[in-house]
Design a protein that fits this description.
Shape: globular
Strand content: 15-25%
Largest sheet: 10 strands, mixed
Helix content: 10-25%
């Protein structure tokens, strides 16, 4: 038996030995404080808010198993402690008095450097520096008492003079005031030389890829070219995504290691798709972007101070710490936040959970290709492969089994998940693979910690003003505002992680119920060319156009197509509106047809290209006479709603039903009915 004095001596020695911390925020530097923000506005019992901005310096141990999943972590430069260093920008928007808040972090997974939560939940302008009262929008998140945290995870573009936000980059962020980025190291060979491999760029999405004067394009590369030898690279063009015929483009050249230039080929238009295969160098250790999200949130949840002694602003000396952390991501970052879980980053360096709940929005069956050599987190290629959903399945092509939750289930760190999509993801992201098998034969049973909701009739992004079709799109852009559904989902998610109150059952199209069908079988109404409200709209002529879901071999460039996953579409009613999912009063009591798809005009791809993410709105005729004169098969407003009172009553009934289902908040239901009352429908 050891003597007490010996035990105390051993303990004393151990206390002098620094503990090995595998991944951590080493220093938090606050560079700017705005207190109060939002113009000094008060938010109910929570009071005023303040904004903190700065940089968090991080380091990870490349030898730790938690970090082993990071591609090329073993090729990153090391500091004197044998760790890999990087740093990220951050913004914290918090109650001035944290005790008055709900002590919940809502992590804003920034999209291309820009914060998105205030736009989603508060219907506010999407800015990173919300100083004015207008920037608070409806104040929803502030009234609830959330602390909003955002941090950069995406690398900045290394050269100046980028002409605009949308230049086909997506995977790196052009310099912009307030953009949240991450400074991540470049992987090198053991001798310090550059890593070189064939890389791929795709340029599409009109009108952002329009040529300059003289019909000449200038395109930017995500990674620098290893050699400026045109003979070692290829540039091809095809009419659209589903077109396998790739035609070589002649006359292209390098401007420098980051830019190429080429004329628009004869016979092609602004909707054409270009593919550039070239030898690239200097891959970013991009998986550290996930480690940064993990370590920033873990620091704010669990640690009192950083290594320099700076106090965690969310851990006051007197007061309770953060209780829960939720995360929201949309589109690119909806894919980021669910891939964060898939890659195992929801477990921090001490085995604690990072996010208790996440809302992965409009990511459908795609993941995000952030963690890879020469990865492109702004694109879907590299991120569109099995597994597609949260239930363990076997891929009928490869025979491989897996799920999005396999790593977090092993570490017991799975969050509660609200998976939300719009109809747009049916046509662009094989949404049926979220709830069905890889052969589109049967539905799957989602795990108990997952719910899936489809916002019926909605386009990729929420809201908009009804106006004439754009130069690019054939039909009026879909104006459906689904932010009320997003707010209801957040409230349900919060109650789930806080009080274990189960959220509403999943509401998504179903194979077994016949509401998911093959696009070619969809009985969409034959809507002729129309002139309504002064807008000349072409005939719809539905042609079942959608982006294919391919099984690809990414070991070669360009990837080789090995197989094709079936894509299903939501069945529609006689008006062309979807029959399943979560149907807002706009869909239950419609004034037109709302779709998640639109097609491009001549000059932008025409009938063979989707008008990306815009959706369509095709209004009903005001009167029966106009409808018959135009040959419109859909009933007119006059035929549907005999009086204004009847219309408002139907809207109120639909809104109340959603409130009872906990898919719509009471305040939003009141606003929806008020809007119907103030309309002239039925008058």
């Amino acid at each position: 038996m050891k003597k007490p004095g010996v035990v105390l001596l051993v303990m004393a020695v151990l206390l002098m030995v620094p503990l090995t911390i595998q991944a951590r925020v080493t220093e938090m530097v606050i560079t700017n404080t705005v207190s109060p923000t939002f113009g000094g506005m008060e938010f109910g019992k929570v009071g005023q808010y303040e904004r903190l901005e700065g940089i968090m310096y991080c380091e990870v141990d490349p030898g730790d198993p938690l970090n082993a999943v990071i591609v090329n972590i073993d090729k990153a430069p090391l500091n004197e402690n044998g760790k890999v260093e990087f740093d990220v920008d951050f913004v914290i928007i918090k109650p001035v008095n944290l005790k008055k808040g709900n002590r919940h972090i809502l992590y804003d997974t920034v999209n291309r450097g820009g914060m998105i939560t205030l736009g989603t939940y508060n219907n506010a302008p999407r800015v990173n520096d919300p100083n004015s009262a207008e920037a608070a929008g409806n104040g929803f998140l502030m009234e609830k008492g959330y602390t909003i945290v955002a941090s950069g995870w995406q690398a900045p573009y290394p050269i100046a003079g980028i002409p605009s936000f949308f230049v086909g980059l997506g995977s790196r962020i052009p310099p912009a005031p307030g953009a949240l980025t991450a400074r991540l190291p470049i992987a090198l060979n053991e001798d310090g030389s550059s890593i070189v491999a064939m890389s791929r760029e795709e340029y599409f999405d009109p009108p952002f890829n329009m040529p300059g004067p003289g019909g000449v394009y200038t395109k930017y590369l995500t990674y620098p070219a290893a050699v400026l030898d045109e003979s070692q690279a290829t540039l091809t063009v095809r009419y659209h995504e589903n077109d396998p015929n790739k035609v070589p483009v002649t006359g292209w050249s390098y401007l420098d290691e980051y830019r190429i230039t080429f004329p628009m080929p004869a016979g092609y238009d602004a909707g054409s798709l270009y593919e550039f295969i070239f030898p690239a160098k200097d891959p970013i250790v991009y998986g550290l972007g996930y480690a940064g999200i993990r370590d920033v949130v873990s620091f704010l949840r669990y640690r009192e101070k950083d290594d320099m002694g700076n106090r965690n602003p969310l851990r006051p000396e007197r007061g309770a710490p953060i209780k829960k952390a939720l995360a929201y991501g949309a589109s690119q970052t909806g894919r980021i936040i669910k891939t964060f879980v898939y890659e195992g980053f929801n477990e921090d360096e001490k085995g604690k959970i990072v996010f208790d709940g996440i809302n992965s929005h409009i990511g459908a069956s795609r993941k995000n290709w952030l963690n890879g050599e020469f990865s492109h987190p702004g694109d879907i290629f590299g991120a569109d492969q099995f597994p597609f959903t949260y239930t363990e399945l076997t891929d009928h092509f490869t025979g491989i089994s897996g799920s999005m939750l396999e790593r977090c289930e092993a570490s017991h760190t799975c969050p509660k998940i609200m998976h939300t999509d719009t109809e747009s993801e049916i046509w662009s992201s094989a949404a049926n693979l979220v709830i069905g098998d890889t052969e589109a034969l049967s539905d799957i049973q989602l795990p108990a910690n997952v719910r899936a909701y489809m916002f019926t009739g909605a386009k990729h992004g929420s809201g908009g003003v009804i106006g004439p079709p754009s130069a690019m799109c054939q039909q009026i852009t879909n104006p459906l505002d689904y932010s009320p559904l997003s707010r209801a989902v957040l409230v349900a998610l919060d109650k789930w992680v806080t009080c274990n109150i189960k959220p509403p059952a999943s509401q998504y199209p179903s194979i077994s119920e016949g509401t998911f069908v093959f696009p070619e079988e969809l009985d969409f109404p034959d809507i002729p060319a129309l002139t309504y409200y002064g807008y000349n709209l072409p005939a719809v002529n539905y042609n079942a156009l959608y982006l294919r879901g391919y099984w690809l071999d990414y070991s070669v460039q360009p990837p080789e197509i090995l197989g094709e996953y079936p894509v299903l579409a939501m069945d529609v009613d006689e008006d062309g509106n979807g029959v399943a999912g979560v149907r807002l009063p706009d869909i239950q009591v419609p004034v037109g047809t709302y779709t998640g798809w639109n097609r491009t005009n001549p000059g932008f791809g025409g009938d063979y290209r989707l008008c990306t993410a815009s959706g369509s709105f095709i209004p009903f005729a005001p009167t029966e006479a106009e409808r018959l004169a135009n040959g419109d098969p859909r009933l007119s407003l006059e035929e549907r709603y005999p009086s204004h009172k009847a219309y408002v009553k139907e809207v109120a009934r639909a809104a109340l039903k959603l409130v009872h289902q906990r898919l719509l908040l009471w305040d939003d239901a009141v606003e929806i009915v008020k809007k119907a009352y103030e309309s002239d429908i039925g008058n």
